[in-house]
């Protein structure tokens, strides 16, 4: 199972991403919007491991800044080969890259940290849909491209997600 550290988005950005989820759903395409769990929310994954011990979480709470970061959602991107993931890129800023590096340095010794989380390999994004069959990719891109203008806002703190127990909790709250 996976443990993650995730940057949450301001209400404006959350609303914009959820609107894209709804457009995909309305077009009968895969969408993150079909996940009914209350914890399902737009986010940027900063770090992943198979386990994050309490001491590591304490370091995250202590060392991560509480100041909101500027966040700009850019164009769409596709990850994968057979079953595809459609996402909005998050335009990297020095502040965002620094935050991700801090998260990586804190969790680097945890088990199961994937290579795509290493600074310089990490691609900041917000997932719109997972497991898109290749024949439906063009339609999914068209649906999202119709509204794919850059959207700007702020971050809204950092949470932890435990996929095994399906629970989330705040590690850092934004000090707005």
Molecular structure report:
With 176 residues, the chain is of the alpha+beta class. The chain has one domain (3-164): Cyclic phosphodiesterase (Cyclic Phosphodiesterase, Chain: A), CATH 3.90.1140.10. Helix content is 28%, strand content 34%. The chain contains 4 helices and 7 strands, in the order E-H-E-H-E-E-H-E-H-E-E. The protein has helices at 11-26, 54-63, 94-107, 137-145, and strands spanning 3-9, 43-49, 70-79, 83-90, 125-133, 151-162, 167-172. Strands 1, 2, 3, 4, 5, 6 and 7 form a 7-stranded antiparallel β-sheet that branches. A hairpin with a 4-residue loop joins strand 6 (151-162) and strand 7. Helix 2 packs antiparallel against helix 3. The longest helix has 16 residues, at 11-26. The N and C termini lie far apart (33 Å). The model has no long low-confidence stretch (mean pLDDT 91).
């Amino acid at each position: 199972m996976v443990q993650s550290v995730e940057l949450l988005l301001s209400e404006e950005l959350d609303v914009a991403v959820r609107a894209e989820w709804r457009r995909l759903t309305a077009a009968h395409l895969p969408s993150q919007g079909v996940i009914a769990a209350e914890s399902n929310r737009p986010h940027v994954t900063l770090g992943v491991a198979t386990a994050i011990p309490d001491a590591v979480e304490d370091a995250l709470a202590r060392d991560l800044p509480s100041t909101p970061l500027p966040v700009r959602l850019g164009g769409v991107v596709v990850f994968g080969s057979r079953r595809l993931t459609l996402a909005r890129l998050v335009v990297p800023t020095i502040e965002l890259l620094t935050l991700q590096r801090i998260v990586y340095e804190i969790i680097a010794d945890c088990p199961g940290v994937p290579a795509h989380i290493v600074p310089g390999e990490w691609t900041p994004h917000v997932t719109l849909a997972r497991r898109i069959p290749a024949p439906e990719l063009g339609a999914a891109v068209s649906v999202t491209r119709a509204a794919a203008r850059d959207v700007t806002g702020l971050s809204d703190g950092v949470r932890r997600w435990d996929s095994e127990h399906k629970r989330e909790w705040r590690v850092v709250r934004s000090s707005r």
